[in-house]
Design a protein that fits this description.
By secondary structure, this protein is an all-beta fold. It has one domain. The chain has no helices and five strands. A hairpin with a 4-residue loop joins strand 2 and strand 3. The protein is elongated. The protein starts with a strand and ends in a 10-residue tail after the last strand.
Length: 67
């Protein structure tokens, strides 16, 4: 089970949460990126890391149990 807390808007491209399929995908923002005006011909691009959970709760989900 995973609870995702809200973050600032600058990190939205790093973390993708799919609560319906209970998956979280992490992207490395520095992998394969160009620095300055130099672009290397042989860039290493790492694939995103995908994690699956029994349940994923976003900040929009209420975890308070109704009695």
């Amino acid at each position: 089970m995973l609870r995702v807390c809200p973050t600032d808007a600058g990190h939205s491209s790093v973390l993708n949460v799919d609560a319906r399929s209970r998956q979280v995908v992490l992207h490395n923002p520095t992998a394969g990126g160009a620095t300055g005006s130099h672009v290397t011909a042989h860039r290493h691009i790492s694939p995103p890391k995908m994690f699956a959970f029994d349940a994923v709760f976003t900040p929009d989900d209420c975890l308070v149990r109704a009695v």
